[in-house]
DNA sequence: GCCAACCTTAAATGAACCTTAAAATACAAA
DNA sequence: TTTGTATTTTAAGGTTCATTTAAGGTTGGC
């Protein structure tokens, strides 16, 4: 699921993100009311976890504005305010559930699961760059009418490139992204996988290539620059 | 809405009934576990408000039995037990919400409203996908003129796939759906049952297959009919 | 030409997955 | 309660395929 977490206390926000990411959700963080409203208002999320006490707009304000806009993404309130009146208020203006801080990880996950069960019209999201589309749930890479599945590592690396298409990525960057900081993987691992991915790009006839910047790293680019 | 209230303390039960009747709901009271299970098991209610501590069967027992029987009426637990483990347990076995006694009248009404909104899922008696039909009350799987019965677990898993035919389901998804969040079931359980189901699909000559996405999960698909 | 960085490929390894049969459990009938 | 049957769980061995290893080849800068 695509989940928007709105929480101004950074360490709590990060903890929630980590927890949900482990459960295979895609998490986006926002820390202030207006940003959150703006981000949520396209209706692209499957669930919004919303702190009530926020800078600018409160969680309740955001909920009211979204519901007025006919955005019915399920909303789970998350807050230190634990009085019954608050709970009732939140549920009445269109929230779907309520969890008090400090909360238990298992309970958060259980409630997310319950809310997610409903909102099953999930849009499979994908990364797009030039003529490439990478499906994030099936790991299938598509170019025009050709498709090819990627392995886990190929996916980790290519998605990293697609998310950072304007940057040069060093081998160390790629190593720590795809193998982890503490792994003993070496440069040759990256070289091998870059080779695998290039082969798949060629097989798809994509115009996308991976350029080598000798001694520096790799960068996405395109063929025939005319 | 038609609401079943299961509560053994008569004065509380009556108070809830009065409260909900005032909100224009039709309320039926039960005071013991077996009676409640029997009453709920025809699936005629829109909502069940269920005390956890009951004579004979506990509220959790009733929920489990109902869900096993494919009765998915929303359930609101109502209880004095307020530990997180209880909450998580209740939500995981198929409950939808949880309210601790003593509760506030306004909060009860607010939560009833939320759960009522949710029960707009159409009740069908079979799931259909491509050439497959799965009867939800007999657990019989049919393809063209061939039929074969499914066991409980086979049914749990295949119906989960049929309800989510466009999504990739991970082993964890399937485990928590068919065995529950707290079970100690392992990946091999899923593999064994996927194998069982595939054998039955083949036996029926269905065009439907279960694809493996290595390292990711499984997804419904069809044999390539060109 | 020489060296370091990089590329490619094939073989070895290991993790993920599949299948099957036997053991354990649940459940209903006798 | 006992017995028989269906279902679920356990366990083991086999298979496949992603990943790692390793070796030899290529490229580009000095």
Task: Using brief descriptors, characterize the structure shown.
homodimer, 226 residues, alpha/beta, Rossmann fold, Arc Repressor Mutant, subunit A, 2 domains, five-stranded parallel beta sheet, four-stranded antiparallel beta sheet, 8 helices, 11 strands, 23% strand, DNA-binding
Name the helicity range of chain A: 40-55%
Mean pLDDT of chain A: 81
Major sheet description of chain A: 5 strands, parallel
Judging from the principal axes of the Cα atoms, what is the shape of chain A? elongated
Calculate Rg of chain A over CA atoms. 21 Å
Number of individual domains of chain A:
2
- Termini gap of chain A: 41 Å
Order of helices and strands of chain A: EHEHEHEHEHEEEEHHHEE
Assembly status = homodimer
Query: Which pair of protein chains has the largest interface, and what are the residue counts?
Result: A-B, 28 and 29 residues
Q: Report the count of strand segments of chain A.
A: 11
In spatial order, strands of the major sheet of chain A run: 2-1-3-4-5
Report the CATH C-level class of the largest domain in chain A. Alpha Beta
β-sheet strand percentage of chain A: 15-25%
Just name the CATH architecture of the largest domain in chain A.
3-Layer(aba) Sandwich
């Amino acid at each position: 699921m695509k989940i928007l977490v709105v929480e101004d206390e950074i360490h709590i926000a990060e903890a929630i993100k980590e927890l949900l990411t482990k459960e295979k959700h895609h998490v986006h963080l926002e820390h202030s009311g207006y940003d959150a409203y703006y981000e949520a208002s396209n209706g692209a999320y499957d669930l919004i976890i919303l702190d009530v006490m926020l800078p600018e707009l409160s969680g309740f304000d955001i909920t009211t504005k979204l519901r007025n806009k006919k955005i019915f993404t399920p909303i789970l309130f998350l807050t230190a305010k634990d009085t019954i009146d608050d709970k009732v208020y939140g549920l009445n203006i269109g929230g779907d559930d309520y969890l008090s801080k400090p909360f238990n990880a298992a309970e958060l996950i259980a409630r997310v699961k319950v809310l997610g069960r409903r909102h099953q019209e999930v849009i499979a999201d994908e990364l797009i760059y030039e003529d490439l589309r990478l499906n994030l749930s099936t790991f299938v890479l598509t170019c025009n009418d050709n498709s090819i599945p990627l392995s886990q590592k190929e996916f980790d690396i290519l998605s990293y490139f697609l998310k950072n298409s304007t940057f040069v990525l060093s081998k160390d960057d790629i190593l720590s992204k795809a193998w982890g900081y503490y792994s003993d993987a070496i440069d040759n691992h990256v070289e091998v996988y870059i080779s695998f991915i290039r082969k798949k790009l060629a097989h798809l006839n994509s115009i996308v290539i991976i350029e080598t910047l000798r001694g520096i790293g790799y960068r996405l680019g395109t063929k025939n620059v005319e």
